[in-house]
Amino acid sequence: MTLALPKQALPPQPTAVPAAGLRATARIVARSDDGSGTTRLPVLDGDGPLALRRIRAHGDQARVCVVGAMSAPLGGDRLRIEATAEAGSALHITAAAATVALPGRTGEPATYDVHLTVGDGARLDWLPEPLISAAGSDLRMTTTVELAPTARLVLREEQVLGRSGEQTGTLRSRLTVRRAGRTLLDQETAYGPGVPGWDTPAVLGGHRAVGQLLVVDRQEESGPPEVRLLGAEAGERSADGAGQGVLAPLAGDAVLATALAPDALRLRRLLDEAARGAAAG
Predict the structure, then answer these.
(1) Which of 46, 184, 186, 217 could pair with 51 in a Cys bridge, judged by C-beta atoms 3.0 to 4.6 Å apart?
(2) What is the pLDDT of residue 233?
(3) Using one digit for the tens of pLDDT, what is the confidence trace for 111-127?
(4) Residue 216 forms part of a structural domain
(5) Which Pfam families does its entry note (predicted)?
(6) Domains of the chain: total
């Protein structure tokens, strides 16, 4: 005789939670074609949100555009770009749009690492669009550049603290540039909630866009430019809300411009002025 036992409800099973954040690495390698004098791209490997597109070359310079294939970086994401300009090559890297750091499902910070290597006689232009730190986000960004003794570099970095009408997230950024193994520039900045004094007159003074332009080029005959304030070309003054900046020489045939502005548009104007000043020597 078989007894039918009442069915017992099974305890609820926990829903599988995906690992926090995604991992993605994009790789670019530029190589000089000795036969034609142009630059080839033997490696152009995008990953995840980091899609890479080859765009029309300019002279002997290969050009690559980074396209955001999805929203990133979010909290917990680990993103990385590795770009190498081998000896004698010329590489220009830009972006299709601004990068927006957003909060994720967890409280973990996101990381965005950029590693650039430039060989002897090579030139690399790293000119992305601005990075926007949205409210609630937490991003740790590092940019590391390794230059050979005769390498040339143009590097622009722009950061906007918060979208229109919102507070900023937390943004920590470090830029390290080494030439022939010796440190040329190593600086770290931090803004947003939890960072003491970041919005005081001693740091940003109420501005919400900050950027810099670094030019490393051996032009021993012309010599480095003199220290100059930015914004003077248009007769602008900080009191007019146009921002302010300075262009100054560094050791090792390099110049660095640092600028603050109320928004990304006025920041770009200051850095464009710095680029013209650096080119004039």
Answers:
(1) 46
(2) 55
(3) 999 999 999 999 999 99
(4) no
(5) UreD
(6) 1
Using alpha carbons, select from 133, 271, 261 the residue that is nearest to residue 190: 133
pTM, two decimal places: 0.88
Contacts 24+ apart (CB under 8 A), 200-208: 204/161, 204/260, 205/260, 207/243, 207/260, 207/261, 207/262, 208/160, 208/161, 208/162, 208/168, 208/262, 208/263
231, amino acid identity: G
**pLDDT band with cut points at 50, 70 and 90 for residue 19:** low
Residue 73 lies in a domain: yes
Q: pLDDT per residue over 30-73, tens digit each?
A: 999 876 779 999 999 999 999 999 999 888 899 999 999 898 99
3-class DSSP string for 215-271: EECCCCCCCCCCCEEECCCCCCCHHHCCCEEEEEEECCCEEEEEEEECCHHHHHHHH
Distance CA 248, CA 237 (A): 19
Tokens of 272: 């464009």
DSSP 281: -
Residue 271 inside a domain? The answer is no
Task: Supply the range of the domain harboring residue 85.
Answer: 23-206
What is the sign of the dihedral through the CA atoms of 274, 275, 277 and 278? positive
